[in-house]
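#struct-help
A.M.: can someone run this one for me? Single chain, 155 residues.
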Amino acid sequence: MKLETAVKILRIGLGINFLWFGMLKFFPGMSPAETLAKMTIDALTFNLVPPGLELLAVWEVAIGVGFITGKYLPYIIRIFMVHMVLTFTPLVLFPELCFTNAPFALTLVGQYIIKNLVFITAGAIICITRNKKYENNDAQEKCTVTQIRENEVPR
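D.P.: on it. Structure tokens below:
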């Protein structure tokens, strides 16, 4: 499989996750993260944002649609990374919900948060590779990770 194809599959898979999780937040009681999300939004906004997850739902759906379609990726990646940083705030704001024995023994909520490291890695790969050409059509030379790192991608 070509690297370009693998990154596209990764991008679409990440998009499906965000679209799915975001859509659930439009329907009260459907998202398993609803209570944690509300608590976190309340804490981060000092209770200035009205209760409900509609704004978060729109944000996540936008990220999902952006990754699925590949449109506006520079902006989608930015709002995705901001979102990912904010998902880690409950580890600090609500350690009693995230750890049974901080900082190593995670609760199910803590594991739900830590799995976002995989999402961040996927987003970083999409970001790094989005403007790269992976294969030289003339020489059929495949791009290596070292070439991507050193910005020596065959053109």
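A.M.: thanks! Residues 28 and 34 are 8 Å apart (CA to CA).
D.P.: also worth noting: The longest helix spans residues 3-24.
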